[in-house]
Every structure is written in structure tokens, then in C-alpha cells.
Amino acid sequence: MQQGLSVISQVQVLRDEIREHRLAGKRIALVPTMGALHEGHLSLVTLARQRADIVICSIFVNPKQFGEGEDLDAYPRTLEADVRLLDEIGTDLVFSPSSDDIYPSGFATKVSVAGVSEGMCGDDRPEHFDGVATIVAKLLLMVLPDVAIFGEKDFQQLLVIKQMVRDLNIPVEILGAPIVRAEDGLALSSRNEYLSAERRAIAPKLYEVLTDLAAEIRNGGEVPRVIEKARGRLIDYGFSVDYVELRSGLHLDRRTALVDGEEARVFAAVRLGATRLIDNVAV
Ligand code: PAF
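A: This is the predicted complex of the input protein with pantoate.
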């Protein structure tokens, strides 16, 4: 039964509240976010609700995962509206710390996950996954949830977090949730807000091209050739292309052909003006 939503900004208050729930034998889920919530985030909360008694959503725009010249200052901050949405769909607790609380003066630790952080977004955004791994490690250690949920749109991020949790023996189940899309296919993202009407109309072509690419590979198309074709289509639509790749679904090994029995996905990152969009589709 929903008891009403608490919004907590201090780590110690968070820990005290969680201790009460633990003593009462409750199972706890964490949904880490940077706010500016949309249906994609809400689907994570809904999944969390199915998996736990107490659902905690963190809202923190993590400066360490933004590179120089990226959109840290412009990143949408809509705490009041976010809390309202979370309350409506049944969240128990929102953790919304200040940057000084998370990274006090003298903070000196970085969590870096080799291998799966490299390539794709790791090449285009150096330091990004270190920033993600560092904040997620901190959040997991603050909350010590039974389960934590992340969207599959950020598939590389999901695998970085799974690897980190395995390597550091953090006792939590990491669950990926399917991508939520707008009716026209565009994967929901807080950054979609940056798109002008004209660019918003082009953006769904990314999903269209990836869906076609996945089908061509599934049907035996020669991978380097069909990837080049997809890249050309994206450029013709007006995207600038950071990458289009086929990778294994488990460790993100780059593939130039399907491997029998192995799950694989096509991944792309593109830019429309200054807005960077990522997406992926299972083959
Ligand atoms: O996916 C996000 O919103 C962020 O990268 C995360 C996982 C909340 C860490 O800041």
C-alpha cells in the first residue's frame, strides 16, 4: 500500500529511512535517473514496483558523466514535475542529493570499467562511463537495493554497470528494461526535448534505419556492406553519424558477421545539430 512519497536530499536521512524498510523485511528497488522524466523512466519504475515492496528513484544530474563542451548546464532539470509524476505512479521515495553531497570537496575516487566501456560511446565520450560507473557505484552502496533497473536504450551503460557489479561483488540484481518508443519509433530520451520540430520529424529515421539494418543482417546481408548502406541512409536523412556497428549482446564484441547462437544487436549514435541520439535494435 502506498504510504505517500518522501523526497530526501541527504544521504544519512536516506540510509535511516531505508534501514526502517529493511527491518520491516521489505524488498527494495532502485531506479537511478537524471530526472526530466518521461514514459521510459516511468516504465522502469513500473518494473521496479513489480519486483520490490519499496521503490526508490534517484534524481541526480551527474556532472562526472558529462564531457567538456557537453550539455551539463543545459540538461533539463524538472524536479517538481518529476516528483509529481513519480507520486502519481506509486514511488515510495525520491533521492535528490546535491552535487556537494555526492562529490564533497576532496572527492578522489573513480570507478573505471575496462573492456565494455571501450568503443562506441566510450570512444565518442571519453570519461563518460567512468562518470556513470562512479555515480552508480555510489548510489548502489548508499541504497543497497535488492534490484536496480536501467533502460536498454543505454545498452552499453547497462553492460558497464553489470560488469562493475560483478567485479566489485555488489550484492544487487541489475535488470535491463526494454526501450520505450514514441509512436513514430523514436526511442524516448530526455535529450529529445532539444530537437526543433523539423529535427524531431527526422529523428525517428534512426530507428527505421536500424530496424532495416537488423533485418538485412538477419537475412544474411554482408555486414560491412549493409552497415555502410545504413550509414549512407542516415547521412542522406541529415544525421551526422558517430557510429553504426554490429556487436555481440553479451560483451559488446564488435562483429563483422553473425556468430551462431549468439545474441547480437546493431547500435548507432548520431547527431542532429548539437543533439546526440543513440539507439539499438536486436538482430
Ligand atoms: O541513464 C542515466 O540516466 C544515467 O546515466 C544514470 C544511470 C542515472 C547515472 O547518472
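The pocket of pantoate is lined by residues 32-34, 62, 65, 132, 135-136, 154, 157 (CB under 6 Å). Strands lie at 6-8, 28-33, 54-59, 93-95, 147-151, 173-177, 240-248, 264-272, 275-282.
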